[in-house]
Amino acid sequence: MDCRSDEELYQLVQESRVHTIEGMVPDYIPALAKADLSSLSVAMAFPDGSCYSAGDIETKSTLQSISKVLALALALLDNGEEYVFQRVGMEPTGDPFNSIIKLETIAPHKPLNPMINAGALAVSSMIKGDSVEERLGRLIQLTELIIGEEGIGYNEEVAQSELETADLNRSMAYYLKQHCVIEEEVDAVIELYTKQCAIEMNCVDLAKVGLLLAMDGKHPATGEMILPPRVASICKTFMVTCGMYNASGEFAIRVGVPAKSGVSGGIMASVPQRCGIGIFGPALDDRGNSVAGWDLMEKMSKKYDLSMF
Amino acid sequence: MDCRSDEELYQLVQESRVHTIEGMVPDYIPALAKADLSSLSVAMAFPDGSCYSAGDIETKSTLQSISKVLALALALLDNGEEYVFQRVGMEPTGDPFNSIIKLETIAPHKPLNPMINAGALAVSSMIKGDSVEERLGRLIQLTELIIGEEGIGYNEEVAQSELETADLNRSMAYYLKQHCVIEEEVDAVIELYTKQCAIEMNCVDLAKVGLLLAMDGKHPATGEMILPPRVASICKTFMVTCGMYNASGEFAIRVGVPAKSGVSGGIMASVPQRCGIGIFGPALDDRGNSVAGWDLMEKMSKKYDLSMF
Amino acid sequence: MDCRSDEELYQLVQESRVHTIEGMVPDYIPALAKADLSSLSVAMAFPDGSCYSAGDIETKSTLQSISKVLALALALLDNGEEYVFQRVGMEPTGDPFNSIIKLETIAPHKPLNPMINAGALAVSSMIKGDSVEERLGRLIQLTELIIGEEGIGYNEEVAQSELETADLNRSMAYYLKQHCVIEEEVDAVIELYTKQCAIEMNCVDLAKVGLLLAMDGKHPATGEMILPPRVASICKTFMVTCGMYNASGEFAIRVGVPAKSGVSGGIMASVPQRCGIGIFGPALDDRGNSVAGWDLMEKMSKKYDLSMF
Amino acid sequence: MDCRSDEELYQLVQESRVHTIEGMVPDYIPALAKADLSSLSVAMAFPDGSCYSAGDIETKSTLQSISKVLALALALLDNGEEYVFQRVGMEPTGDPFNSIIKLETIAPHKPLNPMINAGALAVSSMIKGDSVEERLGRLIQLTELIIGEEGIGYNEEVAQSELETADLNRSMAYYLKQHCVIEEEVDAVIELYTKQCAIEMNCVDLAKVGLLLAMDGKHPATGEMILPPRVASICKTFMVTCGMYNASGEFAIRVGVPAKSGVSGGIMASVPQRCGIGIFGPALDDRGNSVAGWDLMEKMSKKYDLSMF
Q1: pLDDT in tens, B188-204
Q2: How far apart are CA B176 and CA B117, in angstroms?
Q3: Which of B168, B178, B186 sits opposite D175 (nearest CB)?
Q4: Which of A109, B221, B291, D269 is 20 to 30 Å apart from C187, CA to CA?
Q5: Please, are residues A201 and A146 in contact by the beta-carbon 8 Å criterion?
C-alpha cells in the first residue's frame, strides 16, 4: 500500500526512539527475544485513504495481545453480545494480564474482561468452526476484510515458540474449563489462541485495523460495513478501559485514545472518526507495553490533539 | 434556575422508574435509609443555557461519591498533577470501592485510583487549607463557581450519621497514614471526606457540574475558565474508567459516557461538548449504582446517541 | 486381620453417627457420590498388636487426600528433605485445599505445603520411577510394607471418575510447570496423583498406617524400620499443621492429634507412641472433613486423653 | 532467681551467635532499634526448680508478640472458650502477621487466629476491667502469678515509641470495629495492646512462663493451678500452629516444640512435661523471628531431643 513517509512523524519517532533503551523484550517467548530493540515504526491511516508513516514500515511483527480485539469482534459476530458476556466480564482490573487470582475470588468464576489472557482464551474458544485451522482461517479472513487486502498469515516459528511456553495459559484454560467457561478441549483453544497471537502484519496494516474501528466498522474506501457499529464500539470501549494491560488507566489519562498493545511491541489505536494508528517498537516497559510506542502516542496525542476526554 | 419539564424525558423516567423496586438503600448510612425509594429525577443542561428535566427537581440529595470528582479537581488545582499521582494511582480495579486488599498487595502502597474510597481519602487530604472548615469551604466555593450559583451547603444530619459509621474509612485512612500517603491526622481527613460526601444539591445543579466538565472546564454562560481543560479531562477520564464503582467497565460498554455515581443514588454524566446530566434515584443495585438511574442512562444514551465509542 | 469389635468404641460411634445427617458427599467426584452417607467405622491399632474396632470394618474406601502423607514419605525417601522443600513449602494456609491464589501471590512460586493439592501434585511428581505404573507401584509397595500385608490396590472406577473431573488439578499442575516446580508432563503427574488418591483400604489398615507413624516409622510387630524416624516426624508435623484442610487449626485445638483427612470421609490419626486410628465416614462438612469422623475424634480424644498439647 | 550458668548451653549459644550478623532489628519501632544485635541469652527452667542459662540473663527485653499468649490466656479466663472463638478463629495462615487481606476475603470477617496482629487486637479487647490501666494491671498480675515473682512492669519508652507508629494496628482495629469484632474505642484497645507488648522480663522469667504452660498450667513449685489445663493446652496448640509468624510451619518441622516469638527477638518455648525455654536475641530474620534464637532452638531440639513429633 501507499503510505507516505512523513517528516513530522519522523521527528516524533526520533524523539521517542531514545526511550527504547529503557525497555526489554519478554524473555518468556524466545522467538520474540530476537527483535531489534531499537526499532520503532508508526503509520497513521485516515478515512480519505491518505497514510503517513515513519520508520521501517516494511517489517512485519506479530500481533500478540492486539489479536484479542479481532478475536473479540469475531466472537461477537459469531455468538452475539449476550452469549459472549455471559462468559466474559466487562470490568477492568488492577491485576496483571496473566493473573489467575480473580478467577478464584470473583463469583461467578468468569474472566473479568476479554483483554486479559483468561478472558481472551474464553473469547477464542467462542470462535466458530469445525477445526482450529478453520477457526483461525476465519479470523484471518476477517482481518483481511478489515485491512482490505489479502495475504495475512501467522508466524509459525513464533507460534511454535509460544506453544512450548504456554503453561500459564494452559493453567488458566483448565481453570476456566473446570468452571464451564471453556467447553472445548484445552489443547484446541491453546493452539488457536497461540496462532492467533502470531498473526503478523506491518504497522500500516495495523493502522488500517485501527481506522476501521475508528470509522464504526465501515470500510473508509468502499463504504462496506465490515463490522456492525455496535461491535466496533464494544472493541473501542475495551481498548480504553483495558487495552494497555494494567497501565490502561494511566494511558487513558495521558493519551486518551482507544488503544491495544501486545508484547511484540505493537500498539493499535483508534481515534474516533479521525484515524487509525499502528506502531511497532519491541522494547517493552515493565507492564508489557512498548516503551517508545507509549511515548510516541503521548507525543502524537498532544501534537494532534487526539484525546477523547 | 430555569429548567423546563420535558415530555420525552418524562416518558423515559416513567419507563426507568419501574426498576426502582429492584433496588435498595444502603443500610450502613442510617440517614440515607429514609430516602424515597421510588423517586427518580433527571436534568440535562446544554451549553446554550437550555435545560430539560423530569421528575421532582426540587429535592436535594447528597453527592456521596460524586464529590470525589470535585475533590480531585480541587486537589489537582492545589497540588498539580505530578504531586497528586505520586500518591494516588490511575488504574481501575475489579475490587469493590471499599476494598482494602490492593493497598497491601500492590507496591508501592498507594490507592489504585481516586474514585475508590482509599484514593478519595488520599485526594481529600491534599485539599489545602488551615482547617477542615476552610478546606471544605474551598471545595464548596469551587462547586458554586462551577454551578454558577451560591447557596451550596452540606447536610449535617447525613454527615453526622456517616461520621458515626466510618470505621472502614478510618481503617483505610490509618493504612494510608502508615504508608505516608496521608500525612495529616486521620480524624481531620475523615471529617473533611465525610462532610464533602454530604454536600447536597438537586439534579439540575448536578447536570451543570457535568456540563462544565463536558465543556472542558469553561463556563458555558460566561466563558470563564473555571477549571483548566487538563483538569476537566482528567476528571472525565476517571469517570469513564472508574466512575461507576466496579461496574464502570459495563457502564462504558452499555452507556459509553463519562459518569460518576454515589450511594445517594446520584449519577453525574458529562457528554463531551454536548451536555451535562444529573440524576437522582435512591434505589441502588448491588454494586452501589442507582438502579433506575443506570437504566435511564442506557435509554438516554440510545435515544440521543450519547456514547463516545 | 484380627481387630476386635469393641463395645466402648461402638457407643462412641453410635453417638457420633447422628452427625452424618449434617454432611454431604462431594458432588465433583461422581464415584464418591454413591457412598453410604450414614456409615461410620473406626479402628484403633496399638503397638502390642491389639486392635479395637466398631462399625463395618470390611468396607474399603479410597484414601483421597490421606494418600498425600504416604506420597510425601516416599518423595522424602526418594529425594531427601532438602530437595523436596526447595519445591514445596512448610507453611499452613488459611486458604482452601484447592486454592490457586497463593501460587501467584507468594514468591518464589512454590506451593505452601504438601497437604494442599498444589503441594501434593508437586510431591507426587517427585516420586521416582520410569513410568506412572512403576511409580504408583512403588507407592503401593511402601503402603503394603507399612501395613504389613499385601493386596493393596486402587479403585479404577474412582480413579477414572476423578481423572475426568481433574481440570482444577490440571490448572494447578500447569501453573507449577510454568514455574518449574513440576518438570514432567502434566498428564503423567495428574494420572499418578489421581490413581494414588484412589488407593483403597479399610479402616483397620488405615489405623495401621497411623500406628507406624506413631511409632516413628518402626513396625511394631517386626521392629523393622520401614520409615526413618525423621520422615515419620515430618509427616506427623504436617498432619498437625495442615492435615485437616483449612480446619487444621481448629482440629489441633479441639482434638490435638496428628491427623489427615480425605474427601472419601477418611481420617487417619497418629497418637505418638500410643496408637494409630483409622476412620471412614463419607458424609463431609463444608471444609471437606468427615463430619461424624471429626466428632468421633473429639470424643475419643477426650475419653482417652489423646491430645499432645 | 537462681539460674545456673551452663557450659553446654554456652557452647550452643556461641555457635548460634554467629548467625546474629544475618539479622536486623525492625526499623518501624525506633525504641527496639537500639538493641545490641549481637547479644543472645537463653534459660531452661525445669519442673524440679532447676534452671540453666547462658549469656546475659540480667538484661530485660520486651515481650512484643509473646504477650499474645498471655493475653489469650487471660481472655479465655475472662470470657470462656466459646465467646473468644466466636470472635477470633483458630486457623493458621500463610500471610504475614500484619496482613489485613484475610479480614476482607474470609467471611465472617473475624481474624484467622489470635497470634496474628488482628487476632491479638481482638483478644486484648476481651480482657476485662474498667480502664486500660486496670486491664493491663490484671495481665501483669497474671504474669507475676505464672512466674511466681512480683516486679513485672512494662517499658514506657518502648510503649510510647510503638504507640506513635501503630497506624497499621489502628487500621486493623477500625476494620474489626466495623465488623463488630472489637466493640470498645479503638484508642483504648491500641493503648492496651501496645503496653502489653512492652511488658518486659529477662530470659529466665520467660522460661518460667514456658514451663508453666509445659506443666499444663500448674505451678511446678507450689502445685497451684494458675491456669486451667485446657487454657494451657489451647495456648500451646496455637504456639505450634501459629507461634512463629509465617514460619510457624517450618519451625514445627525443624524444631517441633510449641513456641512463640516476638520482634524484640524473644522466643518462649514449652516442652510438654519437660521444661520451659526463654531466649532473647534481637537480630531478626525476614519473617520477624530471632535469627540466632531460631538456630539455637534447632540445636537444642536436636541435642536434647525436644520435638513432640
Answers
A1: 999 999 999 999 999 99
A2: 11
A3: B168
A4: A109
A5: no
CATH of domain A65-197: 1.10.1500.10
What distance in Å separates residue C216's CA from the closest CA in chain D?
8
Residue at C209: amino acid letter? V
* Cα C18 from Cα C37, distance rounded (Å): 11
Chain C from 90 to 129: CB within 8 A of any A CB: 99-101, 103-105
CB B76 within 8 A of CB B231: yes
Q: Which CATH architecture has domain D66-197?
A: Orthogonal Bundle (1.10)
**Cα–Cα dist C288/C297, whole Å:** 15
Residue B241 CA to residue A255 CA, distance in Å, equals 14
Q: CATH second-level architecture of B4-64+200-302?
A: 3-Layer(aba) Sandwich (3.40)
**Radius of gyration of the CA atoms of chain B, in A:** 18
Residue to substitute from C105, C167, C186, interface A, most A β-carbons within 10 A: C167
Q: What is the 3-state secondary structure (H, E, C) of C195-239?
A: HHHCEEECHHHHHHHHHHHHCCCECCCCCCECCCHHHHHHHHHHH
Residues 175-234 of D with CB under 8 A from B: 175, 177-178, 186
Closest CA to B270 of B224, B231, B216: B216
Residue of C52, C1, C10, C66 lying closest to C209 (CA atoms): C66
Counting Cβ atoms within 10 Å, is residue C299 exposed (0-12), middle (13-18) or buried (19+)?
middle
Establish how many alpha carbons lie within 13 A of residue C8's alpha carbon, considering only the half-sphere containing its beta carbon.
6
| Residue A170 near chain C (CB below 8 Å) | yes
Query: Cα-flanking dihedrals φ and ψ of residue D260, to 5°?
Result: -130, 135
What is the C-alpha separation between C173 and C98, in angstroms, rounded? 12
Q: Report the Cα D27 to chain-centroid distance in Å.
A: 20
Q: Which residue of A has its CA nearest to B213?
A: A309
Catalytically active residues of D, by annotation: 65, 68, 193, 245, 263
Helices D229-242 and D203-214, packing angle to 10 deg: 110
- Consult the annotation and say whether B69 binds a ligand: no
Residue of A nearest to C98 (CA): A104
> What are the two backbone dihedrals, phi and then psi, of residue C98, each rounded to the nearest 5 degrees?
-110, 20
In the predicted model, what is the mean pLDDT of chain B? 95
* pTM for the predicted model, two decimal places: 0.94
Closest residue to A90, CB basis, from B89, B241, B250 = B250
Model confidence pLDDT, tens digit, residues A115-133: 999 999 999 999 999 999 9
CB contacts, 8 Å: D272 with chain C? 308-309
Q: Binning pLDDT at 50, 70 and 90, where does residue A109 land?
A: confident
On chain C, the residues whose CB falls within 8 A of the CB of A167 are 174-175, 177-178, 186
The answer for residues whose C-beta is within 8 angstroms of residue D44's C-beta and 6 or more apart is: D6, D9, D51, D52, D53, D207, D275, D276, D277, D300
In this structure, CATH architecture of domain A4-64+201-303:
3-Layer(aba) Sandwich (3.40)
When pLDDT is averaged across residues C270-299 and rounded to a whole number, the result is 97
Residue ranges of the domains in chain C? 4-64+200-302, 66-197
User: Mind listing the pLDDT tens digit for each residue in D4-31?
Assistant: 999 999 999 999 999 999 999 887 777 7
How high is the mean pLDDT of chain C? 95
Q: How confident is the model at residue D2 (pLDDT cuts 50, 70, 90)?
A: confident
| Contact yes or no for B45/B211 (Cβ under 8 A) | yes
Summarize pLDDT for D215-248 with one digit per residue, the tens: 999 999 999 999 999 999 999 999 999 999 999 9
C49, exposed or middle or buried, with CB in 10 Å at 0-12, 13-18, 19+? exposed
